[in-house]
């Protein structure tokens, strides 16, 4: 039984978010995860781009068997698909492959080739945002691996948030982690990472829209390079 099941039926999720966001600001990562699992039980999932399995490793310690949603856009690097398969084989989680409503071929037939180059916002919406929105409908909350140090738009995020767009709770357990803390956790725990990180891809998206990053460049400068875009839309 979760905490939600023991409380009044009309409990407002937005009230839970506000009190938890204050109480858990600056709390240890595992404390945040334990709160979320105790509160939402089987109605919480985890999303992963398969850049690394750090959050998967952390959450599966508290909730083995948790659903991990991976959006397979049809444009991923082979290394990303391989990371997904390795995660499924190694960790005690249930990986769910989420796909867009159209295949790449069907999208190109309807909207023309290389939509990602002509209208990257629309391509991201069709192949990432919309499929994930559908997949999240069966849950009350989701774990996200965003960090404040990644982009300017993430600096004011909170460890527990109300996801107004989807009408659910979003939990960001590693929000305050630095890249050094992430690297140390991965090394200390032998966490699976996408091998593209070794080839100068510090931030990994779809293959057509991601390039290697030179030393000294912003780690996310290889995402949608030259397009004036920094977010796919999932976390906006």
From TrEMBL:
Q: Could you tell me the EC number(s) of this protein? A: 1.8.4.10
- Give the matching CDD domains: PAPS_reductase
Q: In which pathway does it act?
A: Sulfur metabolism; hydrogen sulfide biosynthesis; sulfite from sulfate
Residue sites binding [4Fe-4S] cluster per the record: 123-124, 206, 209
The record's keywords, sorted A to Z, are: Cytoplasm, Iron, Iron-sulfur, Metal-binding, Oxidoreductase
Q: Which cofactor does it need?
A: [4Fe-4S] cluster
**Cofactor remark from the record:** Binds 1 [4Fe-4S] cluster per subunit.
> What role is this protein assigned?
Catalyzes the formation of sulfite from adenosine 5'-phosphosulfate (APS) using thioredoxin as an electron donor.
The Swiss-Prot or TrEMBL record describes its family as follows: Belongs to the PAPS reductase family. CysH subfamily.
Query: What name appears for this protein in its UniProt entry?
Result: Adenosine 5'-phosphosulfate reductase
